Amino acid sequence: MNESHLTLVLAAAAGLGASAYLGTVAMYGAGKFFRVRVCELGFGVGPKLFGFQLGSAEVGFRLFPINSFVRFQDNRFPASQGDPKTSMDSRPCWVRFLIPFLGCLVPLAIGGSLLGMANAREAFFPLVEFIKGTISPFGYAQEFLRSYEDFRRENGILRAAALPVFITGSLSLLPISPFAGLGQALVAIRKNDCQGHMPAWSGVSLFVFLAIICAWIAAAAVFVFSK
Q1: Which helix (H) or strand (E) holds 38?
Q2: If pLDDT is split at 50, 70 and 90, which confidence band does 33 have?
Q3: Which residues contact 82 (CB under 8 A, 6 or more apart)?
Q4: By C-alpha distance, which of 216, 152, 225 is closest to 3?
């Protein structure tokens, strides 16, 4: 096992977790600012380990700390109905869009600031490299990780962790999932019931998410155990 490579992978994992949590906390704060009732604030996926009550929100910590979410009261959905005055669907269109969209912008802004990105082309490059690595986990992804290791040596662990924060924020600008990023923002601005489109969209997003995770777990395993 290459310890230097393992350090890099752990830094990347920390960055991915931080990105999810930063976006979730930003959405929670925006929801509270616009007086939308927060029903649930979740950190991680899988079985729930422990939790507590924070105002109207049930805060839960789950087994795998790789994602997080906020569930607002929204009277378009039976599972989260309540007082119309505190419901997401009662807010203006721009507010319903802004709250989930902040979940993209905050990781982008923090990651980009830590990386010191100066222009749009420089900011777009990591996302393109990440997508190419997803398609080729044993080929191009290995080149990407080696260049990422060089980046860590030159710039330190903090900026190395900031790169996956920025990439994750960039990915959330793609409307892949109806429950995160731009996809969630687009769902939020629909005033009518939009549950009919959810099963197919959710199925596709879950497949894409799992494909990305599996590809990069395989790439990271090969990278860590390479000489």
Answers
A1: strand 38-54
A2: very high
A3: 37, 73, 75
A4: 225
